[in-house]
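Task: fold both queries, return tokens.
Query 1:
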Amino acid sequence: MVLNDLFVDGKIYFKKDFYNVYFKNISPMLETYRGIVYPWECDMFNHMNVQFYVSKFDIASWQLLGQIGITNEYFSQENRGMVTMEQHIKYQRELVAGDLLIIRSTLEDIRDKSIQFRHKMYNSIKNELAAEAVLTSIHLNTMTRKSCNFPAEIKAKFQIALNKK
């Protein structure tokens, strides 16, 4: 084995093949975050504090929405917004300072005024699921502060994404 190879589960992989073996076939999820656990994000037990799981999942949410056309430009031009009404996080493995992370995300459901999506946070070196979040968000008219229907073109993009699952 050379330094450019990885030894995993009794097999040797070239680094370029590692992504395909371990992440490409996980599911039709989109990579929405890539980063590291910084020491200042850890609690007194050297585990990433829960507030930073939420923060990283929030970043992933905006990346996912942006891929479907729900962008800052859309919000300002259409006087729209998104608010998360429900969030469930399941913690699977502890993360510590220096761990490298990938979040992969997918849409779960679309309704007239709401969407549900799922994020999976992986320790990208160990290929372990660290946490999973399911969020329900509401489409909002920022002038009236009331929920409103998604435009047909955005809902169509959601449907395309859901059908790829």
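Query 1 returned. Query 2:
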Amino acid sequence: MYIPLLNSSFALTPDESALALLALSHTTIEHQLYTAMLNRVLAAQTAIGAFTVQSLRQTSGVRSAAAIKRGLLGLAGKLSVEEHHAVSADGMTQGKRLFHVFLPQEIFARRYIASLQSKPENPVLMNAPREQSWQGNLSEVIKRYGISCREAEVALFCVQGLTNAEIARRLHIGEPTVKFHLRNIFTKCGVKRRTELVSHLLTQPSSAKQVVEVELK
């Protein structure tokens, strides 16, 4: 079977900001699996890799076979990976599942095309709050930083690159109210300016709860 190599202009490391934001749309288990799969294909300089439950147990730290299978379904549903069902003539893929593992930048573009998320000119961004993916990101930011729902909305719009005026129009509030929320956000996140806030949101590790998994016999 043909496994396409990444072309020479293709970055061998994902955009770290995009990867951090992508984590907000994955569950903890999904992101563990995605990171393990991404590292595998990047190391091999391919877009497609063959994976088994056992190999993913070893590389992702997820021990439950059922959790791995659910996680792979979740990643496929969120357009982070895509399964290939072709099998090579020599049978080397027997017992393995082939997945195209997309870079974070590619995932946001795929989600945009599917009308799930993102704007084409900035694939790291979320779309309107009505989307389920936006609600998931809001919940994660609220939990991670201990800020209010409105403050989380303002913070995520800052990540999108919106101005105070644009945020005010989007949320149907006045600019002074946006500035008030920003001051509170800066204090809670320990930053002094908008650029520091964006960097903080994109680079801080997740505070997601540890998931206790039961190993199936």
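Both queries returned. Flag for query 2: Residues 28-44 form the longest helix (17 residues).
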